[in-house]
Amino acid sequence: MTDPAPSSVALYVHWPYCSRICPYCDFNIVRDRGRTDEQAALAEAILADLAAQAALLGRLPLASIFFGGGTPSLMDPAAVATVIKRARTLFPGGGDVEVTLEANPTHAEADRFAALSDAGINRLSLGVQSLDDAALAFLGRNHSAAEARRAIALAAAAFPRLSIDLIYARPGQTAAHWREELETAVDLGFEHISPYQLTIEPTTAFGRAVARGAWVPPDEDLAAELYETTQTVLERRGFEAYEISNHARGEAARSAHNLHVWRGGDYVGVGPGAHGRLTLGGVRTATVAHRKIGDYVAGVAQGEPWAESEALDARAAAEERLLLGLRTTEGVAEVVFEGLGLAPAELISDGFLVTRGGRIAATAKGRPVLDGVLKALLT
Ligand SMILES: C[S@@+](CC[C@H](N)C(=O)[O-])C[C@H]1O[C@@H](n2cnc3c(N)ncnc32)[C@H](O)[C@@H]1O
Ligand code: SF4
């Protein structure tokens, strides 16, 4: 079975450099050691990769662009502008699309916001993580709460749209403290917030610390209480949880890029380790670029940017649509369930899923235990 032809394509650009490596992070990252030649070569490779993938796809309209990392706020604004212009030329007709860039809130990066706005960024996703200096020190961040507040103010002035990331479920954090922190953050003013529960990744410094018993993350009950606190505070302050970790003040404030991905749209991934989903010859194809910068640059030069590319069969593609779609409040079309031969009657009668207008979505009871819901569905 072939997938329907995509009607638009989004672009994800991965910029792997970070000023400092945070002890919880297992993204595809490297320390920024100021190697400008390497960075210029990577920016060139990203442009060449983009052009090559566009040639495979044809002239689809552009849906959105997302610069993620790593820390793309460290990228040369001129290189950011060139990528945006090239994407608009290769995928014309997308109109005035959302162009997001992830930024760290240090003084040095905040001082580049105006240049990044001039480069064509119209939405900033700022990694504030916490507004408590002790928590920021624990998280190994290279900025203070005061720096983060200044960055929020500068970002609000430079970009029409602003989102912030926070990390909760830190050791010792109480629901009362988290409520206060969230309220303080919301008072600073932005249209979108992504509060992430701290995940202990085994290969990180935090993973090793927890394994040797240096500290203990919050237990399941406290983590659930912190999650509930997040929902209650943000809902009361006018934010809708349109996805498990994403809350927006009104529909226009939702991330168009993330929605495109969660709805199963095609996206080109460029940069080291970037993932993509392309419909090639009618077949949904998952791509992963070479993770190491040198391998990626060499791979692009040889016409082989991908470490892996896998044609997904209809079942794998539909399962992926389910996994992503059930994270959102809009859910997944019932036909996707039918195509997989799934009849979730029991999960519906138990109140974990709900049917609405030909779609099935997770309820407020189902969302916090979505992993279990998906397991029950797919096994
Ligand atoms: C790819 S990071 C890039 C953002 C930017 N470099 C920064 O650190 O501000 C995107 C977000 O993922 C979240 N994140 C990364 N690792 C995490 C973890 N182990 N647990 C919870 N959230 C995490 C952080 O909130 C971070 O802002
Ligand atoms: S959280 Fe952000 S700054 Fe920290 S290592 Fe990960 S990508 Fe880099």
How would you explain this protein's 3D organization?
The structure is a single chain. The model has no long low-confidence stretch (mean pLDDT 95). The chain has 379 residues and is of the alpha/beta class. The chain is built from 15 helices and 17 strands. β16 (353-356) and β17 form a beta hairpin. The protein has helices at 36-57, 77-90, 107-110, 113-118, 133-138, 145-158, 175-187, 205-211, 220-236, 256-262, 293-301, 314-325, 334-339, 345-349, 370-378, and strands spanning 9-15, 17-18, 30-31, 62-69, 98-103, 123-129, 161-168, 192-197, 240-243, 246-248, 266-270, 275-280, 283-289, 306-311, 332-333, 353-356, 359-362. 41% of the residues are buried. The protein is globular. It binds S-adenosylmethionine and iron/sulfur cluster.
Write the layout of secondary structure elements.
Blueprint: E1 9-15, E2 17-18, E3 30-31, H1 36-57, E4 62-69, H2 77-90, E5 98-103, H3 107-110, H4 113-118, E6 123-129, H5 133-138, H6 145-158, E7 161-168, H7 175-187, E8 192-197, H8 205-211, H9 220-236, E9 240-243, E10 246-248, H10 256-262, E11 266-270, E12 275-280, E13 283-289, H11 293-301, E14 306-311, H12 314-325, E15 332-333, H13 334-339, H14 345-349, E16 353-356, E17 359-362, H15 370-378
Parallel strand pairs: 1-4, 1-11, 2-3, 4-5, 5-6, 6-7, 7-8
Antiparallel strand pairs: 8-10, 9-10, 12-13, 13-14, 15-17, 16-17
Helix pairs in contact: 1-2, 1-11, 7-9
Bound molecules: S-adenosylmethionine (SAM) and iron/sulfur cluster.
S-adenosylmethionine (SAM) binds next to strand 4, strand 6 and strand 7.
